[in-house]
Amino acid sequence: MVISFCCGKGGTGKTTSTYNIGAALAKAGKQVLLVDNDQQGSLTLAMGYEPQMLSMTLANLMFQAIDMPDQLTDAIGQAILQKTENLHLVPANNKLAGILSRLVSMQNTRAMFPLDDSSIAPERVLTAIIEQVKDQYDYILIDCSPHLDLQMLNALVASERAIIPTQAHFLDTVGLNDTIEIIRKVQQSLNPNLKQVDILLTMFMQRTVLNQISRQNVVERYGEQMNIFSQPIDYSIKVAEHPAVGISLLEYAPKNAAALSYRAVAEEVMKNG
Ligand SMILES: Nc1ncnc2c1ncn2[C@@H]1O[C@H](COP(=O)(O)OP(=O)(O)OP(=O)(O)O)[C@@H](O)[C@H]1O
Ligand SMILES: [Mg+2]
After folding, report:
1. What ligand 1 atom has the least distance to the C-alpha of 145?
2. pLDDT at residue number 110
């Protein structure tokens, strides 16, 4: 099962959710690969690695998949970092920006020479990488950047499920429409295997009227077309602290309310996928 964490808005909890749901799945005994698909390298950093010090990252793998696909398997082996026995990471850093411009130029070339189909499609480069490792993992979770660009499209084309983390705030929940529209387009034209779409409410404060009303609005507005996780992720300062020490929230503060909510969401993920 390949799952993209995406939302066209910044700071909604995509990276935090990818890491901690991944950690919860690994704790439940699943073999888990996380993919940092964001040039900010936040997931890589939160997992305790220094993005700029890494010589093999997702950018190298994507260039390899485009230019030297026959050497891709070896490169993937070199790039994957083993955080724990069954929680692995394909890291990223700002070199991923170079890949985006390459993907855009591939797209332009395809528009100009539509009959030349010998090279890989610009939206399927990440799929080619994931195909190589899919058999080794129960779950592959992809952390996307907040930009609705070709890099995110690559993630959605490679995925069977998309989880949209969002804060229960008025502007954030209204802003979901753009992300959902892209997902629908991918489902219709590029990836019919992207069957399930979920909304995950993050940084949730049970006692605030704003969060309760926003949650109700999300359920009314989207509840019929997609799954809304029954467990929102609680707001807690511990969540903001744990990336600084490079370990997951589940290890940093196992009894914290947000850690418990991430465990519950991981259970829900395992139940329906
Ligand atoms: N449940 C929570 N409680 C408190 N703080 C949180 C919670 N979830 C995330 N945060 C904090 O909010 C900030 C944004 O979270 P995160 O980096 O996961 O969002 P993002 O969607 O990945 O951002 P970007 O769009 O920049 O990639 C971080 O500082 C993070 O530590
Ligand atoms: Mg992020």
Report:
1. 27
2. 85
The pTM of the whole model exceeds 0.90: yes
88 C-beta closer than 6 A to ligand 1:
no
Identify the band that residue 273 occupies on the pLDDT scale cut at 50, 70 and 90.
low
Ordered by where they begin, the domains of the chain are: 2-271 (3.40.50.300)
**How many C-beta atoms lie closer than 10 Å to residue 206's C-beta?**
11
Is there an atom of ligand 1 within 6 Å of 244 CB? no
Query: Please, what is the end-to-end C-alpha distance for the chain in angstroms?
Result: 7
Dihedral, CA atoms, 45, 243, 34, 160, nearest 10 degrees?
-120
Distance CA 235, CA 257 (A): 8
Three-class secondary structure assignment of 67-95? HCHHHHHHHHHHHCEEEECCEEEECCCCC
Which ligand 1 atom is the nearest neighbour of the CA of 19?
A: 18
**Which of 163, 138, 160, 83 lies closest to 270, judged by CA?**
138
How confident is the model over 173-197, as pLDDT tens digits? 877 999 999 999 999 999 999 999 9
Q: Are 52 and 84 in contact (CB under 8 A)?
A: no
Mean pLDDT score of the chain: 95
Residue whose CA is closest, atom 13 of ligand 1? 11
> Counting atoms of ligand 1 from 1, which one is nearest the CA of 202?
1
Q: Encode pLDDT of 120-177 as tens digits.
A: 999 999 999 999 999 999 999 999 999 999 999 999 999 999 999 999 987 788 779 9
What separation in angstroms does the CA of 139 have from each of 14, 163, 200, 226?
A: 16, 13, 18, 20
118 pLDDT more than 80? no
CB under 5 Å of ion ligand 2: residues: 14-15, 42
